[in-house]
UniProtKB/TrEMBL annotation:
Catalyzed reactions: Hydrolysis of terminal non-reducing beta-D-fructofuranoside residues in beta-D-fructofuranosides
InterPro entries xref list: 6-hairpin_glycosidase_sf, 6hp_glycosidase-like_sf, Glyco_hydro_100
Family note: Belongs to the glycosyl hydrolase 100 family.
Cited function: Invertase that cleaves sucrose into glucose and fructose.
GO molecular-function term, one example from the UniProt record: sucrose alpha-glucosidase activity
Enzyme class: hydrolase
Name assigned to this protein: Alkaline/neutral invertase
Keyword Hydrolase attributed: yes
């Protein structure tokens, strides 16, 4: 039988007496009976490609009720979305778990699954969030780090926020952010990366990037607008289907870097809307979007925390999607370390910049996503091994980063005096770092107070560059120890002119120059010294800086940075990035009206004014995790095992 494959996620609009009607369906069809056959089918689809993405699936069941996206492994939850056929037409059918408990999904909930038609049908669980009293039960508390913030407090915080008059800059930013909203089948699903009407060559900047949408999502959530975020989370979940690139299928669970809503003309005055994801197969350099799935998890938790709509994360399809990402990240490989091994350009820096291996940014996002997942995963027989794996990984990862990535003056002096070629489990210089590797700029630059986590660690290699995003997320997620987190902020303050200058904040410091630039970037003309990813200044980093400052009780520092940004961003038309050592000029190839610049500014303003809301987005030290690691070390005879011991170790 010839496979019949159709375009993923389509939606038809037709005009009838001036009224527009929208009919949506996931038109992803194949008819195959064995997984072997379907594997071939994936490749066939790729080769028969229409201008749009076509995907194959591994298994499909009967004609009248076709299951798709059946995971290759079993979680005890197989079908998550299905389609039904009536009158020969394919119709969307979402399976939504109706969860009695607002906290967790149990296997028994399968008996209580509702089947609803149409992707735009508002599930029952959503309707409940419109009413305040239903957000969280009166006695329910939301955890904010160590503290408990009651829903009543949050409502008060909202009222405070609404009372303040918005500045003209904020009003303009809100208008621009709303103009950047992308709709699919009549509903908002994301924001495009940049929306400059004068840009004749938008490349892929007219797409919704997963990582770029996060500050937009936070701005909307903090303003009390959850719908766009909910739609984004659910629609991107549908895109997490696996993909074939040159006959190779990357792991299932990979989230795309971005997606675009395309319009396809159909017969009979109709058009079809299609969600067309890019997993890196079109991206410049074919980079893998490793951070997308991690951001998706972080956003899913933020959505629950801020709206109180925990039912979304409890849905069976959402739980399955979450597990698919986690399984992809936690799969065993040849690794010796708990950190994630990735290729160059797999995160915000999505071009060759010498960050392959174990870059800090990915480790910090990985750690944050694991902490989120630990809170959100339904614990049952099908997930208990995964939960155990998450806990073990969290404690091993924090130990690894805290011990081996940390540098301050004392540590650099230690490295400076390292002996090399030590062969033993007791080696001090475990990675065989030659002291000559310490760059001369670092000897002069490192302040007496403060320190930071280095960019990357490999055998015989430490990348001493300061990468801002990774350091900020180490503070936010408590990947670093409380003292280290404090010291990172101290360093940013001490090195304000270098890391903030005229525009917060440098993506990394310092820039690669001369021969190093040529070899490391491959002579990339976009990443010339002090431009773009190579030491450029990115205003979108402001919201994460604000969050880190609020967490550390340093809102004053965040305010200083926000004020600096506000002085220039509106006048400069909200650029993507700035160039030069101090961030003086708008970037050479910088887009204007860059959405995550605009949204990052708005989110920063709201976070700094509402620390109690901000506290929903960060984590405090978790002693249970430390204990796991200290106990594991004690078994190998290296440390004493107890929570007290955990607290007194280097780990704290
Ligand atoms: C650039 C950035 C990347 C961002 C994209 C869209 O490629 O490096 O981080 O997601 O633009 O704004």
């Amino acid at each position: 039988m010839k496979p019949n494959c159709r375009i993923l996620f389509s939606c038809q609009k037709s005009s009838f007496f001036g009224f527009q009607s929208v009919k949506c369906h996931h038109s992803l069809v194949n008819h195959c009976n064995s997984s072997k056959f379907c594997l071939n089918f994936e490749h066939n689809c790729q080769f028969q490609a229409t201008p749009f993405r076509i995907l194959g699936f591994r298994r499909v069941s009967d004609d009248s009720h076709i299951a798709f996206r059946v995971p290759m492994w079993s979680f005890g939850q197989s079908r998550i979305i299905s389609r039904s056929y009536s009158d020969g037409r394919c119709r969307d059918v979402s399976i939504i778990a109706s969860v009695a408990s607002k906290k967790r999904v149990s296997e028994n909930n399968f008996e209580r699954i509702y089947v609803q038609g149409g992707v735009n049908v508002k599930p029952l669980v959503v309707e409940r969030i419109d009413k305040d009293e239903d957000i969280v039960g009166a006695e329910d508390k939301i955890e904010a780090g160590d503290e408990k913030v009651s829903q009543v407090d949050l409502n008060e915080a909202k009222a405070v926020r609404l009372r303040r008059e918005q500045s003209d800059n904020e009003k303009e930013a809100w208008k621009l952010l709303r103009d950047a909203v992308v709709s699919y089948c009549g509903s908002p699903v994301g924001t495009m990366a940049a929306n400059d009407p004068n840009d004749k060559q938008p490349l892929n900047y007219d797409q919704v990037f997963i990582r770029d949408f996060v500050p937009s999502a936070l701005a909307f959530l903090l303003k009390g607008e959850g719908e766009i975020v909910r739609n984004f989370l659910l629609h991107t979940l549908q895109l997490q289907l696996g993909k074939t690139v040159d006959c190779y299928s990357p792991g299932q669970g990979l989230m795309p870097a971005s997606f675009k809503v395309r319009t396809v003309p159909l017969d009979g005055n109709k058009i079809e809307e299609v969600l067309d994801p890019d997993f890196g197969e079109s991206a410049i350099g074919r980079v893998a979007p490793v951070d997308s799935g991690l951001w998706w998890i972080i956003l899913l938790r933020a959505y629950g925390k801020i709206t109180g709509d925990y039912a979304l994360q409890e849905r069976v399809d959402v739980q399955t999607g979450l597990k698919m990402i986690l399984n992809l990240c936690l799969t065993d490989g040849f690794d010796m370390f708990p950190s994630l091994l990735v290729t160059d350009g797999s995160c915000m820096i999505d071009r060759r910049m010498g960050i392959h291996g174990h870059p800090l940014e990915i480790q910090a996002l990985f750690y944050s996503a694991l902490r989120c997942s630990r809170e959100m995963l339904a614990v049952n027989d099908g997930s208990k091994n995964l939960v155990r794996a998450i806990n073990n990984r969290l404690s091993a990862l924090s130990f690894h980063i805290r011990e081996y990535y940390w540098v301050d003056m004392k540590k650099i002096n230690e490295i400076y005096r390292y002996k090399t070629e030590e062969y033993s489990t007791d080696a001090i210089n475990k990675f065989n770092i030659y002291p000559e590797q310490i760059p001369s700029w670092l000897m002069d630059w490192i302040p007496e107070e403060g320190g930071y986590l280095i960019g990357n660690l490999q055998p015989a290699h430490m990348d001493f560059r300061f990468f801002t995003l990774g350091n900020l997320w180490s503070i936010i997620s408590s990947l670093g120890t409380p003292k280290q987190n404090e010291a990172i902020l101290n360093l940013i303050e001490a090195k304000w002119d270098d890391l903030v200058g005229h525009m917060p904040l440098k993506i990394c410091y310092p820039a690669l120059e001369y021969e190093e630039w040529r070899i490391t970037t491959g002579s990339d003309p976009k990443n010339t010294p002090w431009s773009y990813h190579n030491g450029g200044s990115w205003p979108t980093l402001l919201w994460q800086f604000t969050l880190a400052c609020v967490k550390m009780g340093r809102s004053d520092v965040a305010r200083k940075a926000v004020a600096l940004a506000e002085k220039r961003l509106p006048a400069d038309h909200w650029p993507e990035y700035y160039d030069t050592k101090t961030g003086k000029f708008i970037g050479k190839q910088s887009r204007l009206y860059q959405t995550w610049t605009i949204a990052g500014f708005l989110a920063s303003k709201m976070l700094v004014e509402n620390p109690e809301m901000a506290s929903l987005l960060f984590w405090e030290e978790d002693y249970e995790l430390l204990e796991i690691c200290v106990c594991a070390l004690s078994k190998s005879g290296r440390k004493k095992c107890s929570r007290g011991a955990a607290k007194s170790q280097i780990l704290v």
